[in-house]
Amino acid sequence: MSLLSFDDRDGFIWMDGAMAPWRDAQVHVLSHALHYASAVFEGERVYGGKIFKLTEHTERLRDSAALLDFELPYSVAEIDAACEALVAKNGIVDGYVRPIAWRGSGMMGVSAQNAGVHVAIAAWEWPSYFSPEARMKGLRMQVSDWRRPAPDTAPTASKAAGLYMICTLSKHKAEAAGYNDALMYDHRGLVAEATGANIFFLMGDKLHTPTPDCFLDGITRRTVIDLARREGIDVVERHIEPHEMAQASEAFLTGTAVEVTPISEIGDYRFTPGQLSQTLMGAYDAEVRRSDDLTALISTSAA
Fold first, then answer.
1. What is the pTM of this model?
2. Burial bucket for residue 1 (CB in 10 Å: 0-12, 13-18, 19+)
3. Parts of the chain with a pLDDT under 50
4. Angle 31-59-192 (CA atoms, 0-180°, nearest 5)?
5. What is the pLDDT of residues 54-67, one digit of tens each?
């Protein structure tokens, strides 16, 4: 199956305050971000034409930029409005939104105070990150050779482009070996996250998830923790040693792209996607659709 290149599509991209035809949204080759990774981004899902937790994502974009020592030239409200306008203009019903902010070409060198800051937003129709078959069977994962860096070596609380280089390397190696993804340990050798998603384990009757002290505390992660607690499930955030995975009966990933996706294996450890995974998959699906249902109900009542 051939895939449509992301630089050759119909539609529009919001760029520096205006809607640009998709193919015209270009960046200069001497942009600072291309050479020095001075870029931050977000990944957001559209359900029924509405962006889930849009403002939380935009606030994190702003905070990530601040951690990389630059300020967005637009307010959170302005970026929220641009995201919503773009989704409407491109006619996206169920899809993905990618805001990104980066330093431009005003300076070339490590120092970049006057490089200029740009913001762009793209949105496209996008199905589930993993196929339905893979989701139902549970993902097969290997353990990455790369580790998440310590917070005193990189701005680990940001969603910065440069932090994903080792994620790409890890995922490529996993896929080449026939796996779906890779689990990354942190700088201490503790369980951290997958290449683009947080991880949870059912151990006994409690749900355990690594403390995000050197990797991103995902918005979907926090949503699923809230949903689990609503279901009466105890959630424990703590440091998890790799050997403790042997105690887990179920495991799953959470993220904007993967939503809630069960895991069947990580290296030598095996898990059985079960009732808890199914419950939280259903609860998450209901949560992301809930605001759309309320909007439809209000519209119908008003009519």
1. 0.92
2. exposed
3. 1-2, 293-303
4. 85
5. 999 999 999 999 99
Give Cα separations from 78 to 73, 74, 119, 244 (angstroms). 10, 6, 11, 45
53 catalytic per annotation: no
What token pair was written down for 50?
A: 């509405």
Q: Among residues 53, 159, 173, 206, which one is catalytic? A: 159
Burial of 47 per CB tally in 10 Å (0-12, 13-18, 19+): middle
Supply the pLDDT for residue 148. 98
CA 137 from chain centre, in angstroms, equals: 22
CA-based end-to-end distance of the chain: 45
**Lookup: tokens for 189:** 């050798």
| Phi, psi for residue 67 in degrees, rounded to 5 | -65, -25
Can you say whether the dihedral through the CA atoms of 175, 130, 240, 273 is positive or negative? negative
Are the CB atoms for 144 and 170 separated by under 8 Å? yes
Collect all residues with Cβ–Cβ distance below 8 Å to 276 and sequence separation of at least 6: 202, 207, 233, 250
- Which tokens hold the place of 257? 């792209």
Are the beta carbons of 190 and 241 closer than 8 angstroms?
A: yes
Of the CA atoms within 13 Å of residue 73, those in its CB half-sphere come to 14
The DSSP secondary-structure symbol of 51 reads E
Which residue, chain included where needed, has tokens 């641009």? 82
Residue 290: predicted pLDDT:
82
> Which pair of tokens denotes residue 216?
């991103």
Domains, the chain: 12-125 (3.30.470.10), 132-288 (3.20.10.10)
Question: Tell me: the pLDDT tens digits for 152-164?
Answer: 999 999 999 999 9
